[in-house]
Amino acid sequence: MEMWELAAREMIRDTIDRYAHCADTGHFAELAELFTADGVLEIDGHPPLQGRAAIAGFLAGTKTSLASTLERPFIRHHTSSVMIDVHGPDDASARSYFLAITERGPDHWGRYRDRLARVGDRWFFRHRFVRPDGHAPQSWRATRRDTE
Fold first, then answer.
1. For 53-67, what is each residue's pLDDT tens digit?
2. Average pLDDT of the residues of the chain
3. Buried b vs exposed e over 33-58: b needs ≥16 C-beta within 10 Å?
4. Other Cβ atoms closer than 10 A to 134
5. pLDDT at residue 86 above 90?
6. With contact defined as beta carbons under 8 Å apart, do 79 and 96 qualify?
7. What would the pLDDT profile of 18-54 be if each residue is shown by its tens digit?
8. How far apart are the C-alpha atoms of 132 and 135, rounded to whole Å?
9. Please, which pLDDT band fits residue 148 given cuts at 50, 70 and 90?
10. What is the DSSP string of 37-79?
11. What's the CA gap between 126 and 48, in Å, rounded?
12. Residue 23: which of 55, 69, 53 has the closest Cα?
């Protein structure tokens, strides 16, 4: 493996980590900036959100749902088993699992499938597909009206 590919893998891992931290701290404009200008966030079974404004707007609604449902409105996303395939100097894909935890305990879990592009010195999501695999009974996810 060449040094440029090792550097790409580490920068991609950083992008994936920043997504979780931005989501958990409510920094949705910053999270949206992790996508290319025409990037897509797609949640299984729902229309894709294209562009940074659409992504940030949807996540603001998620924050409202969380705040209105929980006494202590926090969420923590844990991303694991990250597998990165670098297809070229500017093109990569990644697969990982996530587990979201709220004050009620484990809330929901699933998989991310990502396409990433290098623009300048950074890696951005071109397309992030979120596939929820399940949720706990009485969880925030089970009771909310919109979907993550």
1. 999 998 887 766 666
2. 90
3. bbbbeebbbbbeeeeebbbbebbbeb
4. 11
5. yes
6. yes
7. 999 999 998 999 999 999 999 999 999 889 999 999 9
8. 8
9. very low
10. EEEEEEETTSPPEESHHHHHHHHHHHHHHHHHH-SS---EEEE
11. 12
12. 55
Q: Model pTM greater than 0.85?
A: yes
Task: For residue 87, count CB atoms less than 10 angstroms from its CB and return exposed for 0-12, middle for 13-18, buried for 19 or more.
Answer: exposed
Higher pLDDT, 144 or 74: 74
Q: Is 1 exposed, middle or buried (0-12, 13-18, 19+ CB in 10 A)?
A: exposed
Residue with tokens 């562009």: 51
123 and 11 in contact (C-beta within 8 Å)? yes
Domain coordinates of the chain in residue numbers? 3-143
Q: Would the pLDDT of 106 be above 60? A: yes
Structure tokens at 18: 């920043």
Classify domain 3-143 by CATH architecture.
Answer: Roll (3.10)
Question: Could you please report the per-residue DSSP string of 12-28?
Answer: HHHHHHHHHHHHHHT-H
